[in-house]
Amino acid sequence: MSRREDEKPEDGADAAEPATPDFDKIAQNMGRLLEEYGKVTAAYLKPIERGEAKSGQADEVSDMVKTIGRVAERWVTDPRKIMEAQTSITADFLSLWSATLKRASGEEAKPVVEPDKRDARFADPDWSSHPMFDFVKQAYLIGSRWAESMVDKAEDLDPHTREKARFYVKQIASALSPSNFVATNPELLRETLQQNGENLVRGMKMLAEDIEAGGGELKIRQSDGRAFEVGVNIATTPGKVIYRDEIMELIQYAPATEQVLKRPLLIVPPWINKFYILDLNPEKSFIRWCVAQGLTVFCISWVNPDERHAAKDFESYMREGIFAALDAIEQATGEKRVSAIGYCVGGTLLGVTLAYMAAMKDKRIDSATFFTTQVDFSKAGELSVFVDEDQIRSVEEQMAKSGYLDGARMAGAFNMLRPNDLIWSYAINNYLKGKAPTAFDLLYWNSDSTRMPAANHSFYLRNCYLENKLAKGEMRIAGKTLDLKAVTIPVFNLATREDHIAPAQSVFIGSQCFGGPVDYVVAGSGHIAGVVNPPSKVKYQYWTGGAPEGNYGDWIARASEHAGSWWPHWFKWVEEQAPKRVAAREPGAGKLPALEDAPGTYVRTKV
Q1: What is the DSSP string of 44-83?
Q2: Which of 63, 285, 419, 449 has the CB geometry, 3.0–4.6 Å to 411, for a possible disulfide?
Q3: DSSP 234
Q4: How far apart are CA 96 and CA 236, in angstroms?
Q5: Which residues form the AB hydrolase-1 domain (predicted)?
Q6: Which DSSP state fits 317?
Q7: 54: which residues sit within 8 A by CB, 6+ positions away?
Q8: Is the model's pLDDT at 246 over the cut of 90?
Q9: pLDDT for 15 beyond 60
Q10: In which region does residue 253 sit, left (phi positive, over 0), alpha (psi from -120 to 50) or beta (all else)?
Q11: Are 292 and 320 spatial neighbours (Cβ–Cβ below 8 Å)?
Q12: 506: enclosing H helix or E strand
């Protein structure tokens, strides 16, 4: 689970007027640049010299080379196909050369190839108006699209290898974009000359700092981390921690109404990120909004695990997480039954728990809501490129050394799903323009990554992504074989239309696994912005169409579109399940005393 992109802050810098370069200053700054480069090298080498270098990158590069090599094998075995491929790209380059010569002689010439309208890399006017930069741009687009077509047209390639090859080609093409280099990017060239190279010196300084912060690996800053402090100006909804164990803290939020719904609400967030994505600030906070509607809200805040948690598996997270929370809620409120929400992998855990509870005749969860959650992984989306036997074994070997998966690994995987937006745009802004990123709460959260316990993560990768055991009815937890059809409580299943992590089609298929009534809803935007979409903003729409029957394409075609946030629609659904209201409950006033103020201790632990 990672951030959604549509809320990316604007650069905010206006183009400066052309200025005559000061060559003395440029020379001085090149000297300073070399000094800063020495610091970059030192930051990279320091962990290696201390024997603290992080492992895993060599395996990833090896897998990339192996995968692209398999594509190449399919082409070299057929000389005729190689000739066709060479002819195709040669024809495009000849057309480009001809068009460039026409422009050079003052004639009009249509572009041979144009970037996608949403591709912000080539937004500067000089990419089209200046013949040299236009040639460089089009040459890059021809080459990168040709490489993509080579993967698509390779014969006798198994689907997983083809998807991996597409993914790796996208990473290589994104890295080699001319927009990433000063000499081939007109905007960067202008800025460098206008600033006499000061931008590169500042950028190199930030690069050294970010490699230092990443322990020898580059950790690209996406937001000004100094601008936020958890519990001060982010994650500020009032509440108390009322329970704590080795895996989680349970937060009960203070009421904002005199009367509340009798049935409490338990939120199970993902443990691959921190829970406060649902409590970024008062305007965006789903938790604060729920409290304002008259819900008694409890939220799990997962521990940021270390080597002590290596053996904590899915069953541990079920028992010490969800079950412990249910027990605590009963002590705090006297209520034996709750409504529950699961977000992303927290939703997968909730689905597993519901199936286990059905097998045990445990009825403490009366209705369930899933946010961008997969329980069927047959159409798992782009993250599935990271999952096969070889890659899982490599990850398990890494985790065996420390007891956990480093949070930077998962954060990097999410960023690689959209490299131009989440990697290279920040690399250009930070290290080539020399501009510190702006303060942005969503990106601060995105960089506040967490680790994964070895046993838990291995179970998740193998049982869900690799073998899809939950949907097949083959997953076993605590000696029970789980059957989602036995889950007959009402389910509200939210997908988001542009989700790269839990695709709407995958969520739709998973909705059909449950045995009770399912209200399937699709929100506009992606994995984060589609969920964090408060009614006050009216930024995205949502679609309703009842039960997830048939196939996703037909369902979305006949669904009704609604402007604005889906939150009120969901609350109406929750309220209809149990409309009775009682006097508001204060955290710590029940049998469980308050341990500390929200957001607690676990959420503050950094990687």
Answers
A1: HHHHHHTT-PPP-HHHHHHHHHHHHHHHHHHHHT-HHHHH
A2: 449
A3: B
A4: 56
A5: 293-532
A6: H
A7: 47, 215, 216, 217, 406, 408
A8: yes
A9: no
A10: beta
A11: no
A12: helix 504-511
CA angle 200, 185, 418 (to 5 degrees): 90
* Distances, alpha carbon 545 to alpha carbons 45, 521, 527, in Å: 56, 7, 20
On the 0-12 / 13-18 / 19+ scale of CB atoms within 10 A, 341 is: buried
CATH 3.40.50.1820 maps onto the chain at 239-399+448-604
The per-residue pLDDT for 19 is: 64
DSSP-derived letter for residue 604 is G
3-state secondary structure of 343: strand
Residue owning tokens 């409490």 = 264
Q: Work out the widest C-alpha separation in the chain, in whole angstroms.
A: 85
pLDDT at position 481? 97
What values do phi and psi take at 16, rounded to 5?
A: -80, 160
Considering the candidates 290, 344, 464, 513, report the single residue annotated as catalytic: 344
Length of the chain: 607
What are the φ and ψ backbone dihedral angles of 159, each rounded to 5 degrees? -55, -40
Element holding 268 (H helix, E strand): strand 265-268
Any residues with CB less than 8 A from the CB of 488 and at least 6 apart, and which? Answer: 358, 514, 515, 516
Structure tokens at 43: 């930051």
> Is residue 166 within 8 Å of 160, Cβ to Cβ?
no
HSE toward the beta carbon, residue 234, CA cutoff 13 A: 23
Tokens matching residue 143: 């080459």
Tokens matching residue 370 = 């899933």
How far apart (Å, rounded) are the C-alpha atoms in residues 420 and 431? 15
Q: Which CATH architecture is the domain 239-399+448-604 placed in? A: 3-Layer(aba) Sandwich (3.40)
In this prediction, residue 16 has a pLDDT band, given cuts at 50, 70 and 90, of: very low
Torsion of CA 544, 547, 553, 558, to 10 degrees: -50
Identify whether 344 is a catalytic site residue.
yes
Decide if pLDDT at 287 tops 80.
yes
Our CA dihedral for 552, 554, 559, 564, rounded to 10 degrees, sits at 50
If we measure between CA atoms, which residue out of 324, 239, 327 comes closest to residue 287?
A: 239
Using omega within 30 degrees of 0 as the cis cutoff, is the peptide bond preceding 599 cis? yes
Give one DSSP letter per residue of 17-51, joined into a string: PP----HHHHHHHHHHHHHHHHHHHHHHHHHHHTT
